[in-house]
Structures are given as C-alpha cells and as structure tokens.
Amino acid sequence: MTRITCHRGDLTREAVDAIVNAANSSLLGGGGVDGAIHAAAGPRLLAACRELRATTLPDGLPVGDAVATPGFDLPARWVIHTVGPNAHAGQTDPALLASCFTRSLDGAVELGARSVAFPAVSAGVYGWDADEVARIAVAAVRGHPMPGIDEVRFVLFSDRLRDAFRRALVS
Predict the structure, then answer these.
(1) Long-range contacts of 135-138 (CB under 8 A, 24+ apart)
(2) Number of neighbours of residue 95 by Cβ within 10 angstroms
(3) pLDDT at residue number 106
(4) How high is the mean pLDDT of the chain?
(5) How is the beta sheet containing 151-156 ordered, strand by strand?
(6) By the 8 A CB rule, do 65 and 82 touch?
(7) In whole angstroms, how far apart are CA 152 and each of 20, 39, 86, 94?
(8) How far apart are CA 113 and CA 9, in angstroms?
(9) Confidence class for position 1, pLDDT limits 50, 70, 90
(10) Alpha-carbon span 7 to 15, nearest angstrom
(11) CB burial class (10 A; 0-12, 13-18, 19+) of residue 27?
C-alpha cells in the first residue's frame, strides 16, 4: 500500500527517487518551483530540457502531460516535469489538473521510482485555489494504480498549502 503524506518543505531537498516539477510548456525554466528545481539541478537539466524540445517535444509539453529527465545535482534521481493548467488563461478543467498528477505517476512507475514528491501544481501563479488543488491532487493519487511506488509526498512551500493538503488527506 502506498503511503501518502504532506509536509512543508523544499522540494529540491527531498531524498526521493523522483520529484515533480510544476513546469511551463517550454520546459526551459521559469519562476517558483520550476526556477528552484532548475537552479538546484544545475545547467545539465536545462540542456536535457533543450534536447527534449529539439527532438520529441518541439512544440513544448502539453498541459496535463508529463515527461522525465535525470535529476542531475538534485538528491532525486529524476525530475518529472508536468504542465499545470493556468486558471488565469481560462484553463479551469479539473481533469487537466488531475492529469498532471496521474501522468506524473505513470512516468514514475515507468522509471521504477519507489518514492515521488509533488508540489501543489497550479496553486501558485497559475491561480488555482489551494483547497481545490489539494482535493484534486489527493483524489488523483489515491485513484491511481501505483505498482512499485511505496510513498507519495506532497511537499508544500507554505503553511497555507500544507494545511489544504492535510485537510484533503483526512477527507
């Protein structure tokens, strides 16, 4: 049975097999979680993302999808990049947000990851309500078959987000 937890912390310091990056579709870095992961992973992460853009993802990563790269200088072996829906751009379909979590878990299973850490995808500058993100994320993870994954952590950068995920985990 997969253990699902949440805590306040720095995703870039998590000692797990894979961390999930709340990326933008360009995969070339940005602000928030994305910028922190790129900074902590070092320049080889950007090079790997540029290679993805030059080969398999010339138009960028679609909203709700996920793709993996090595973690390079991070404690995590892999980074699974996913693009959350942007509520400010009218992307308010809960299924798109749920897909970020399920597609990331699909990738983790394919990689053989036993532990995965997620941020609150779309709860930052993309404008989604923290409680809604938490409910959707927890439901998506609980409903996903995760063969081989022992632990899923939600690693949140604020007390407000951590509290939203705590409420979702006890419902």
Answers:
(1) 135/168, 135/171, 136/94, 136/97, 136/98, 136/101, 137/97, 137/98, 137/101, 137/165, 137/168, 138/4, 138/165, 138/168, 138/169, 138/171
(2) 11
(3) 98
(4) 97
(5) 3-8, 151-156, 115-118, 18-23, 78-83, 66-70
(6) yes
(7) 11, 23, 24, 20
(8) 21
(9) confident
(10) 14
(11) buried
Average pLDDT over residues 90-105: 98
pLDDT tens column, 61-90: 999 999 999 999 999 999 999 999 999 999
CA separation for the pair 152, 160 (Å, rounded): 20
Q: Classify residue 165 by burial, with Cβ atoms within 10 Å: 0-12, 13-18, 19+.
A: buried
Architecture of the domain made up of 3-170:
3-Layer(aba) Sandwich (3.40)
Among residues 17, 34, 129, 163, the one annotated as catalytic is 34
- pLDDT tens for 52-62 read 999 999 999 99
Provide the residue ranges of all domains of the chain, joining segments of one domain with +: 3-170
Closest by Cα among 136, 108, 93, 138 to 16:
108
Q: Is the pTM of this model over 0.85?
A: yes
pLDDT at 11: 98
Question: Is 34 an active-site residue?
Answer: yes
What is the residue whose two structure tokens read 């609980």? 142
What is the C-alpha separation between 169 and 145, in angstroms, rounded? 17
